[in-house]
């Protein structure tokens, strides 16, 4: 069973909670996060996550904020940034059928 978390901090907490309940990660539950923070390597098993360019994301957010300050009634836009999955030990390998 997979557990996909909104960020790495939640995923790390989930791993700790699952482990305390006797649920094995990744044997019983695969866990993934999002952010690729430094702590993902300090948890056991190491967390699979999505790496995003935080500097680019912050820069784009500031640009969007400044545009909204200059033109508060302008149409809002959505931002799409790419990310890369970083596979580590918290996800079980998929068995082919």
TrEMBL record:
<dbReference type="InterPro" id="IPR046335">
    <property type="entry name" value="LacI/GalR-like_sensor"/>
</dbReference>
<protein>
    <submittedName>
        <fullName>Substrate-binding domain-containing protein</fullName>
    </submittedName>
</protein>
<feature type="domain" description="Transcriptional regulator LacI/GalR-like sensor">
    <location>
        <begin position="3"/>
        <end position="91"/>
    </location>
</feature>
<keyword id="KW-0805">Transcription regulation</keyword>
<dbReference type="InterPro" id="IPR028082">
    <property type="entry name" value="Peripla_BP_I"/>
</dbReference>
<keyword id="KW-0804">Transcription</keyword>
<dbReference type="Pfam" id="PF13377">
    <property type="entry name" value="Peripla_BP_3"/>
</dbReference>
<keyword id="KW-0238">DNA-binding</keyword>
């Amino acid at each position: 069973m997979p557990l996909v978390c909104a960020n790495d901090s939640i995923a790390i907490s989930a791993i700790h909670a699952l482990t305390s309940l006797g649920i094995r990660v990744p044997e019983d539950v695969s866990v993934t996060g999002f952010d690729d923070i430094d702590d993902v390597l300090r948890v056991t098993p190491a967390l699979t996550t999505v790496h995003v360019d935080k500097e680019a994301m912050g820069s784009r957010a500031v640009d969007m904020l400044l545009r909204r300050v200059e033109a508060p009634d302008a149409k809002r836009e959505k931002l799409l940034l790419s990310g890369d999955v970083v596979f580590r030990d918290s996800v079980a390998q998929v068995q082919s059928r």
